[in-house]
Write a structure and sequence with these properties.
alpha/beta, Metallo-beta-lactamase, Chain A, 7-stranded mixed sheet, 5-stranded mixed sheet, globular, binds zinc ion
Length: about 290
């Protein structure tokens, strides 16, 4: 049997790589909070249990619902013609997401379109299983396709039914989602925007990609991030969401959900806090490099 070098790397290095912690410096302080690469990753991922335990499914705003786990976001956008799911997360979470969708009174089988924020396993490993269970069309930003095709849980090939370019629109049942290329964390990192209606007004919803820089920032990645951080601030935003709940303080906001009270997810003042943190960290890392 011939083992290729990448196969050997997977066998012998994967556990070591997974256990590897990012460094605890540089530290940056944004709006009174201090962050390091290690603290950001810990905040995003939590424990294995956090990654795989459902957060109570809930309405975010209008036809947007949260169906993910404590630390890995999955959003359901419902329409009269079927639903859009954003982020399948780990494959082992797909049945949990299915249950959360059912708890909200919707049918998982009615998911027609599956989108993602970026080609990392914790956000899109479950794509093939979601497609198998729902028949959804899987759509992905062109620049993330090679990395997505490398995500093959149990040897399944990664489904991609439509390749998107920056600015592409996904339209279903009266809802339009717009794909914005916000590269850096991955080549095709995608920030999705849409308008939601609630209480007789429209709200701009932003499903943010991760903007966390890799350990080593090369000049092309630096260029991608500088375009991304400039572009983000031009997007209209009332409701900031993220592919990890900590990026938009889900737990604190959810605790404030109360019938008759203002919707805590409407938070225009904090739309770009996460981008501010990640941009400060990128600058600090570049200085250190
Ligand atoms: Zn990632």
């Amino acid at each position: 049997m011939k083992l290729t070098v990448p196969a050997l790397l997977c066998v012998f290095l994967a556990p070591a790589v997974l256990a590897q912690q990012p460094p605890d410096q540089p530290a940056v302080t944004v709006r009174g909070q201090t962050y390091t690469p290690r603290s950001i990753l810990a905040r995003n991922m939590g424990s294995e249990e956090d990654q795989t335990t459902a957060f109570p499914p809930h309405k975010v705003i209008g036809n947007v619902y949260y169906v993910g786990t404590r630390t890995l976001s999955s959003f359901l956008v419902t329409t009269p013609e079927g639903h859009v799911l954003i982020n399948s997360t780990w494959e082992r979470n797909v049945r949990t997401i299915e249950k959360s969708v059912a708890q909200l009174g919707f049918r998982f089988a009615d998911v027609r379109v599956l989108l993602g924020t970026h080609a990392h396993g914790d956000h899109q490993e479950g794509d093939a299983l979601v497609k198998e269970l729902t028949g959804a069309q899987v759509m992905a930003m062109r620049e993330d396709v090679p990395a997505l095709e490398a995500i093959r849980p149990g040897g399944k090939s990664h489904p991609i039914d439509r390749t998107l370019s920056d600015g592409a629109q996904v339209v279903l049942g009266g809802t339009t989602l717009v794909a914005h290329l916000t590269a850096g964390h991955t080549r095709g990192c995608t920030t999705w925007t849409m308008r939601a209606q609630e209480g007789g007004r429209a709200y701009d919803v932003v499903f943010a990609c991760s903007y966390r820089a890799p350990g080593t920032v090369t000049p092309p990645i630096e260029q991608e991030f500088s375009r991304t951080f400039t572009l983000l601030r031009t997007l209209p935003c009332d409701v900031p969401l993220g592919d990890h709940p900590a990026q938009y303080n889900l737990a604190a906001k959810y605790a404030r959900v109360k019938a008759g009270a203002p919707n805590p997810f409407v938070d225009a003042a904090n739309c770009w806090v996460e981008a501010e943190i990640q941009e400060a960290m990128l600058r600090a890392q570049l200085q250190q490099q």
